[in-house]
Amino acid sequence: MLAGLTFDMVALLVWLGLALDRLLGEPRRWHPLAGFGNVAALIERRMNDKDAGRLRGMLAWLLAVLPLVAASWFAIAMLAQLHFFLALAAHVLMLYFGLGLRSLRDHIMPIAAALQAGDLPLARSLTSRIVSRDTAQLPEADLAKAGVESLLENGNDAVFATLFWFVIAGGPGAVLFRLANTLDAMWGYRTARFLHFGWAAARIDDLLNLAPARLTALSYAALGNTRLAWQCWRAQAPQWSSPNAGPVMAAGAGALAISLGGAAVYDGELEQRPTLGSGPRATGKDIARAWKLVAGTAWLWMGVIGIAGVCLA
């Protein structure tokens, strides 16, 4: 935690950051993460070629992330010299720009509405904006599955892991995690292009997500079918390719008592993925249930952080 911030202050800043996210949502223009993505794409084009290995990928990661994290620390330090409340405002803004709770709702719930209305073309178009799998021919069940999986996984990445690192290191902690997570989304693929260059981005994101992903999975389990969530987490998570998405999605699917995972088409190729959860296949109504689980987890974290702030003040 940053010097000068007591835990009750951190709790208040968390509440303010989430309130800003709820009130304003994702910036439609000039989002810092979008700008960072453009810079990262430029770095990758310049540094990733046929000879690029893990070392160059690590250097590219450091070049993309460290200057911005250092700048965030420096900005807060300078603002604190002017007035303590300016530094607090900077922390809140950094958290706000790293959060995506309302954005998740705004992207996911229209898919549920389209499925409820039987408008599969619209549901396919909306789903294609949030997932990398092919959606052009997906039936309702697969669209619902894609929506629920995206919501559960991004609930961790765009909300709870960001909150975790904010509690640990304030605004710069949230900045660090969101930049690392963005690079993993851009470079962390096991393709010929990124197998070596993106190795560092994938491993660093795995490391930063180890604790928050398991706290997220525990929260999903606590707010849903706890016994089934725990059983699915233990049995199914080790089979998933991602060490952090596995626990989050297996526990979330178990908490909702539905089945996720299975076959999906990526770039025209069928990929057989392990089953997650247990129960009937997801439907459009389950997207709304998954959103309630993620939103309830946000309230749970806010409550726990608030109580900790009072007790540790």
Structure description:
It is a single chain. By secondary structure, this protein is mainly alpha-helical. The protein has eleven helices and two strands. The protein has helices at 7-24, 32-47, 54-82, 84-98, 101-116, 120-128, 140-187, 199-223, 226-236, 245-256, 284-311, and strands at 259-266, 269-277. This is Cobalamin biosynthesis protein CobD. GO terms for molecular function: ABC-type vitamin B12 transporter activity; threonine-phosphate decarboxylase activity.
SSE pattern: HHHHHHHHHHEEH
- Rg, alpha carbons: 20 Å
Uncertain regions spanning at least 5 consecutive residues: none
Number of helices: 11
Mean pLDDT over the residues: 93
Please state the oligomeric state of the protein chains shown.
single chain
- Helix share bin: over 70%
Sketch the major β-sheet: 2 strands, antiparallel
Find the structural class using helix and strand composition: mainly alpha
Number of strands: 2
In order across it, which strands form the biggest sheet? 1-2
Principal-axes shape call = globular
End-to-end separation = 14 Å
Which band does the percent of strand residues land in?
5-15%
Number of domains: 1
Blueprint (SSEs and pairs):
Blueprint: H1 7-24, H2 32-47, H3 54-82, H4 84-98, H5 101-116, H6 120-128, H7 140-187, H8 199-223, H9 226-236, H10 245-256, E1 259-266, E2 269-277, H11 284-311
Antiparallel strand pairs: 1-2
Helix pairs in contact: 1-4, 1-7, 1-11, 2-3, 2-7, 3-4, 3-7, 4-7, 5-6, 5-7, 5-11, 6-7, 7-8, 7-10, 7-11, 8-9, 8-10, 8-11, 9-10
